[in-house]
Design goal:
mainly alpha
Length: about 300
């Protein structure tokens, strides 16, 4: 391949990576909108989460089966298997369950902003567990990020009253669970590969969600309007499966830092989609709080890039 051809190929890979990261961010951010729309039909969080995972599971099983047939794939050790099970339960089952519960009480915009705090939580967890020092820049980023959340929270508290506190705590727990997952996933991802790892942990999470539904609900709970099933399928395809693998594809092409920076469009996308489809107001507090959260998270992401 000539130098010119290599440059063209490299440019196309970068463009594809940017597009993949952008679509993944919008897809993930649309999940909150689809959940809120489904709640209009009085479906509960456990049932809705089970439907989402039931429609997602076949895709992850196919990818997992293909990964197992790949002769270049390393065999999973007992430690790898335990890590996949544990991280799947924490990072996708628990995080998703708490998120779905929280969305019953708070706006889609606040939910996405709280979830977007997970990089700051990774910094704090790393400091506590691995004794990593938090520098002045990171500390300032943490302060302005949480100040932004406080601003949007006060807005929701005024609109939704006491429900905002319950929902915010639940979604904060979701973000914390995902941050724990990210801190613990690095070694296993490096050993077995990002796509294979994603398929495995999502399969574990799907199985856990379906088991929870089977234990706590009867089949009669599935007697729901067709609209709920349509939203669940859309949630599975466009806000679960495609974003998960597009994110992995983006990281391969443009790196994790650039991918995470493009992902910062997620909260903005959620606020705009909530305004269009849910009629949620875009107040000055929301806009200011969003800017503070985005600025803080980007400061941490850029700092990681400089250190790497």
């Amino acid at each position: 391949m000539t130098s010119a051809a290599q440059n063209i190929f490299s440019s196309r890979q970068k463009i594809a990576g940017i597009l993949f990261a952008l679509v993944a961010a919008i897809g993930f951010s649309a999940k909150a909108i689809l959940v809120k729309l489904a709640y209009i039909d009085s479906v509960d969080a456990i049932t809705l989460l089970a439907l989402r995972m039931a429609f997602s599971l076949p895709f992850f099983l196919v990818v997992a089966a293909q990964a197992n047939r790949n002769k270049h794939s390393v065999a999973l050790t007992t430690r790898d298997k335990l890590a996949v099970i544990g991280l799947g339960l924490i990072g996708y089952y628990l995080a998703s369950y708490l998120d779905f519960l929280g969305l019953q009480y708070i706006s889609a915009g606040l939910e996405r902003l709280i979830l977007f705090l997970y990089p700051t939580m990774v910094v704090i967890i790393s400091a506590l567990v691995f004794k990593h020092k938090i520098g002045r820049t990171a500390l300032f980023a943490l302060v302005i990020s949480y100040a932004g959340i406080a601003l949007v929270f006060m807005h929701d508290m005024h609109v939704l009253q006491h429900d905002a506190l319950s929902g915010s705590v639940l979604v904060f727990g979701s973000a914390l669970a995902y941050a724990v997952y990210l801190v613990g996933a690095g070694h296993t991802i490096a050993r077995i590969g990002a796509t294979r790892f994603t398929a495995y942990v999502m399969t574990v999470a799907c199985a856990a969600c379906l088991l929870q539904f089977a234990v706590t609900h009867s089949v009669a709970a599935l007697d729901l309007p067709f609209r709920v099933y349509g939203l669940s399928i859309a949630m599975a395809v466009f806000s679960t499966v495609l974003p998960a693998f597009l994110l992995a594809a983006a990281m391969r092409r443009i790196g994790s830092v650039h991918t995470s920076m493009i992902g910062s469009i997620g909260p903005v996308s959620t606020i705009l989609l909530a305004y269009v489809f849910l009629g949620e107001r875009m107040s000055l507090e929301q806009i200011t709080g969003s800017i503070l959260v985005l600025a803080g998270v980007l400061m941490i992401s850029l700092k990681k890039r400089v250190q790497s």
